[in-house]
Amino acid sequence: MVSNMTAVLQDMDRQHHMHPFSDTKALNEKGVRIITKAEGCHMWTSEGERVMDGMAGLWCVNIGYGRKELAEVAYKQMQELPYYNTFFQTSTQPATELSAKLAEVTPEGLNHVFYANSGSEANDTIAKMVRWYWNTKGKKSKKTIISRVNAYHGVTMAAASLCGLFGMHPQFDLPLPGFTHADCPHWYRFGGDMDPEEFGIQAARSVETMILQLGAENVGAFIGEPIMGAGGVLVPPASYWPEVQRICREHDVLVIADEVICGFGRTGTWFGSEQLGIDPDFMTMAKGLSSGYQPISGVMIHDRIADTLIDIGGELQHGFTYSGHPVASAVALENINILQREGIVETVGAETGPYFQARLRELVDHPLVGEVRGLGMMAAVEIVEDKAIRKSFDGSKEAGRIVRDLAWDRGLLVRATGDSLVMSPPLVMTKADIDELMTALSGALEAAEPVLRG
Ligand SMILES: Cc1ncc(COP(=O)(O)O)c(C=O)c1O
């Protein structure tokens, strides 16, 4: 039995709210959980449960919950100038200062930013900019964008077409023409007996095979998350990205790094591109850009692309009412200032990230754990039935969901992507917080063993 307040809210929600990525009919039967407040790495439900947020919301609350500095900046900006656009020869102080700050913290050469409100919109913007760029170059057939199996890039028509989670396509007759998917570089699932680095090269070469099949004159760009997030935190072998980068340059194919999850410290550097050997022409940013305190996203554009587009002149026929929204920009700017001031990225890189990964790897000897993978503060633990042959449980067993629910009972929220338990906690987690997470997670695995094998 839930409290009266919870029951009233659940009923209202049932009657009026259609949830993203949810089966509304099934959800209505269960009733939603109402989250009422959060502080640091923890959140509370309307039933008074205290839960560690192992997902930082949706991979986004990098600096943790309850940061008053961001609330104060938003309050001040709303009083001074709650809204103004950036269309008509106008800008605002926060949007301008944020642009300079982003040029400072992103890898060299990425010096221009275009703002949107979500990762999906930013990727849609890039899909259009790829066309714009090649059109200005007179190479009008270079339109196809190659993505990858298991990739996640968002939900707008173009972004969803980029996704390689193919369950997302049939409801909407996607993908659109001009979007295609190369191999997924996940060694544990697709590498078989191959050496991981050799497999990395092979997976990269699937991009080249696709370019050659389509004809390089028809391929505009390749897009990839440095580490695939929603697909299950799939870390490619070290050989993969440098080879992809080499192939793309050789065939004059632009490189898009979707840093929506990896960006702003999650991997232990400011951007995953720095660690994985990517030199992107476009970079997608969202989530950690404002730590989720305001909806804002951006596209960083490398000088070698931006200079061409700017020099050619002519009005860009694209923009959002809220591109560079002053309140969202002010909050994002203060969020980046906090990341810098408190050395959060450096701490993840040198201390808490390695500690989190090392503690999780203690689970590899557990009979249910096939693979532990991750970097910095993103990780996944894959549940299997038979470790020796990497055999998953039958889908009807819902192994991932079972362990996820047992973790919740122990005060920890993790996500189940198939049978992988996915984690992406706030970057401000201390070693003590990580220990708390580990106690709940290993407890859930112990409790799951008799349920799954029974
Ligand atoms: C890598 C990546 N790109 C794009 C998106 C889409 O972002 P949004 O949900 O803000 O549209 C996501 C969301 O999880 C993501 O993980």
Order of strands across the main sheet: 4-10-9-8-7-5-6
Count the DSSP helices.
16
Stretches where pLDDT is under 50 for at least 5 consecutive residues are none
The span between the termini is: 29 Å
Apparent shape: globular
- The CATH homologous superfamily of the largest domain is called Type I PLP-dependent aspartate aminotransferase-like (Major domain)
Largest sheet: 7 strands, mixed
Which CATH class of the largest domain?
Alpha Beta
Rg is 22 Å
What structural class do the secondary elements suggest?
A: alpha/beta
Distinct compounds present:
pyridoxal-5'-phosphate
Q: Helix coverage percent of residues?
A: 40-55%
Kindly identify the CATH topology of the largest domain.
Answer: Aspartate Aminotransferase, domain 2
Quantity of strands, as a count: 15
Tell me what the CATH architecture of the largest domain is. 3-Layer(aba) Sandwich
- Tally of individual domains: 2
Describe this structure in words.
This protein has helices spanning 4-16, 24-30, 56-59, 68-80, 93-105, 119-136, 157-162, 187-190, 196-214, 240-250, 272-276, 303-312, 326-341, 344-361, 399-409, 431-453, and strands spanning 35-39, 42-45, 50-53, 110-116, 144-148, 179-182, 219-224, 254-258, 282-285, 297-302, 369-375, 378-383, 412-413, 415-417, 420-423. It folds into two domains: 33-63 and 343-453, Aspartate Aminotransferase, domain 1 (Alpha-Beta Complex); 69-341, Type I PLP-dependent aspartate aminotransferase-like (Major domain) (Aspartate Aminotransferase, domain 2), CATH 3.40.640.10. Helices cover 42% and strands 16% of the residues. The chain is of the alpha/beta class and 454 residues long. The longest helix has 23 residues, at 431-453. The chain binds pyridoxal-5'-phosphate. Pyridoxal-5'-phosphate binds at residues 118-120, 123, 152-154, 225, 229-230, 258, 260-261, 286.
